[in-house]
Amino acid sequence: MSYMEKLLEGVEVEWKSLGEIGEVRMCKRILKKQTTDIGDIPFYKIGTFGKEPNAFISQELFNEYKSKYNYPRVGEVLISASGTIGRTVIFNGQNSYFQDSNIVWVENNENIVLNKYLFYFYEQAKWHTAEGGTIKRLYNNDLKKLQIPIPPLEVQKEIVRILDTFTELTAELTAELTARKKQYSYYREELLSFADAEVVHVPMGQKDVGEFIRGGSLQKKDFTESGVGCIHYGQIYTHYGTYADETKTFVSEKFAEKCRKAQSGNLVIATTSENDEDVCKAVAWLGSEDIAVSSDACIYKHCLNPKYVSYFFQTEQFQKQKRQYITGAKVRRVNADNLAKILIPIPPLEEQERIVSILDKFDTLTTSISEGLPKEIEQRKKQYEYYRDMLLTFPKDN
């Protein structure tokens, strides 16, 4: 703090509009009929730049537009002008094209203001937007009016260096999280495959193993501030992880009397989704009280380690079997009767517990917001935002 206070102490800051220091340009519109699923030049919306392209355009069309309408230079900042207003990326020089209604870019003189400094400033800028039908728009004229604090270049460079450090640390942690998730997936598949062991595989609905019970008529309109805990099927793939001992929502005690309930150790499974990946996502209920379960979900009562079963639902072994039972077009479903046919490997309870103890460590590391890598990444992001806002807040004379 003392270093940064000293860095900014007595610094003279000149305020200029973006129109005074640079030129704002908008990418020429590409029509959907001009794009293809495969092609020469990747076509991006700003939220996906640097990831998988949204589509492709021909080299010929790219050459025509590039020569006729100018083009961003390496290091210049691209800004989303509609949808998610103000989202920013730095152009890396890759041959690519951008959606006109989403992208503007700024050409400026780096002897006055650094592109990277502008990038960080844009991230926290308060944009004035205009309504354009149902979508807010950031128009060029409004963009040009944005007032920007311009300290000396040496101060800009130091601000960029400090913020780059935070960005790089977050990127390293994110890469570490990605690697750990792959490792987690690998060990989960290996531990539950039992390739070198004689482990019996039986239908999940076998009488001495478990039974599937359909959820009740619980809907979102039935939620209350407190009362009996409940799980709505949509929450299973938006809120819950492998297991839980607290519910996000509740229903009244009177309403709960007529609900179908999961007991501690049962699994709650979403049997409906808009995509195949989320169908049959499961959470093991480990709370001490019975909870209400909605329709489009089912309860699995069983004699196995509940976390072991929940981890099994995440394996490719389970997913491969599940796919053959998915029905529906827009809404995808797997019914309880078909879930009962899926084969699960059943080692001794001691082995189930050993597997769970290993996978729990990975689960905590990769998903916990209280002690794992996600928590550390979130802390670093908040730290970065704090220092970014502080470093880019300058007094302005009226």
Description:
This protein has helices spanning 2-8, 18-21, 59-69, 115-123, 140-145, 153-193, 233-236, 253-256, 306-312, 316-323, 336-339, 349-367, 373-391, and strands spanning 14-17, 22-26, 41-44, 55-57, 77-80, 88-90, 97-98, 103-108, 130-132, 135-137, 147-150, 201-203, 210-214, 228-231, 243-244, 249-251, 261-262, 267-270, 272-273, 282-285, 291-293, 297-302, 332-333, 343-345. The protein has 398 residues and is of the alpha+beta class. The chain folds into 3 domains: 14-151, Adenine-n6-DNA-methyltransferase TaqI, Chain A, domain 2 (Alpha-Beta Complex); 152-198 and 347-398, Helix Hairpins (Orthogonal Bundle); 200-346, Adenine-n6-DNA-methyltransferase TaqI, Chain A, domain 2 (Alpha-Beta Complex). The strands form 8 sheets. The protein has a 5-stranded mixed sheet. A 4-stranded antiparallel sheet has the order 2-8-5-6.
Question: What is the structure about, briefly put?
Answer:
The protein is α+β, with helices and mostly antiparallel strands and 398 residues long. Helices cover 36% and strands 21% of the residues.
Task: Please give a handful of descriptors for the protein shown.
single chain; 398 residues; alpha+beta; Adenine-n6-DNA-methyltransferase TaqI, Chain A, domain 2; Helix Hairpins; 3 domains; 4-stranded antiparallel sheet; 21% strand; elongated
What fraction of residues sit in β-strands?
A: 15-25%
Give the low-confidence spans: none
**Residue share in helices?**
25-40%
Structural class designation: alpha+beta
Number of strands: 24
CATH topology of the largest domain: Adenine-n6-DNA-methyltransferase TaqI, Chain A, domain 2
